Amino acid sequence: MNFISERVNNLSASATIAMSQKSAELRAAGIDVINMSIGEPDFNTPEHIKEAAKAAIDANFTHYPPVAGYLSLRKAICDKLKRENGLDYSPEEIVVGNGAKQELCNALLATVNPGDEVIIPVPAWVSYVEMVKLAEGKPVLVYAGVEQDFKITPQQLEAAITPDTRLLMFNSPSNPTGSVYTGKELKALAEVLERHPQVIVLADDIYEHINYTGGAESISRFASLRDRMIVVNGVSKAYAMTGWRIGYLAAPLPIAKACAKLQGQYTSGVSSIAQKAAEAAYAGSQDCVEDMRKAFESRRDLIYSLAKDIPGWIVNRPEGAFYLFPEVSAYIGKKYGDKEIRTSGDYVMYLLEEAHVAAVDGDAFCAPGYLRLSYATSEENIEEAMRRIREATLRLV
Ligand code: PMP
Ligand code: GLU
Predict the structure, then answer these.
(1) Closest to 360 (Cα-Cα) out of 146, 384, 370, 130
(2) Residues framing ligand 1 (Cβ under 6 A)
(3) To test the ligand 2 pocket, which listed residue (17, 171, 174) has its Cβ within 8 A of the most ligand atoms?
(4) Distance of CA 26 to the CA centre of its chain
(5) Residue 125 CA: which ligand 1 atom is closest?
(6) What is the pLDDT at residue 386?
(7) What are the tens digits of pLDDT across the range 81-125?
(8) What global pTM score does this model have?
(9) Four-way CATH pick for 65-285: 3.40.640.10, 3.40.50.2300, 3.40.50.1000, 3.90.640.10
(10) Pairing of strands 229-234, 138-143
């Protein structure tokens, strides 16, 4: 008997999480694997945020919180959106969920009807396509390779929009490529969207603070799109709080209400203690964000300079997030002993087995021929990983 639904049978497991688990298993078996598969800050959560969580326990924030989040947290988020992004949202238009991941999923489930087209510029984060499938939408992939710095053009966007387009998923700075759209590029895309008022824009701003261009710009800043804009963000990346599971969306009232309704049936409000910690993150000093950003920037410089020297790799210089996304198809067809590289996935497995470095196959991000390295790890690990990758790669003939 097969007890599993079509819905789940048709879903792929998350490749980032699978690869990270594999690398943890190898480490447990005594193999010194450097894990560059999962994308999460290696820093600990700042002290003042942890203190706020401890105080929340003592103050008995231990009952069911409101489904959409404590009012105090939603107010702190509104202040953040005003202060950092120049956006006006009221607390009623904010829904706090179990990470940005849940809010992306809520947004799709709340707005996409079966068969609706959802445009996803690719390479894109592993979960986008799968979330659209869960919502029974039809993913429409718009490809931008390394030769165009992984950024789609207004012409590509225009060509992808049809009368059935319901939504555009947009992520800048991008996971997995690290590319960041400039203000001018965003404006050109916004102008296309202005011509198609039926298209909802889902702006995933989770990496907004991990930006090396000297300032973050989001597609959410265009007032002309405000009535169909859903902004998703959270504390995972900016405040090194991946395990606390706090993300949010800001959206026009009917959409926010629909998301809260969904959440009220399948998860309720997020952990009360984590919510109080997130409130401290938004309301407190922002110095920690800048300190971590600077550390990521010097790691970016390091990994980029080392990757450029690997023969056959084509690399862009990532301007944000903490990923490098080299094009590695020069190694397809090469061999080492009885190991043959037929796909970028084979190359990733080869690097895991021969170099003991865990990466993620570009195929998981809808970009076969590439691989993703997360450099949210120490400079020492980056140097050692790149040395091992280079050595193992040069053995391929
Ligand atoms: N969006 C993107 C592009 C991501 O890389 C991630 C990965 N963590 C998320 C959303 C989800 O973040 P979280 O659920 O930890 O807030
Ligand atoms: N977003 C991170 C990554 O891409 C975390 C893992 C996940 O949720 O996929 O590695």
Answers:
(1) 370
(2) 39, 99-101, 125, 171, 175, 204, 206, 234, 236, 242, 247
(3) 17
(4) 25
(5) 3
(6) 98
(7) 999 999 999 999 999 999 999 999 999 999 999 999 999 999 999
(8) 0.96
(9) 3.40.640.10
(10) unpaired
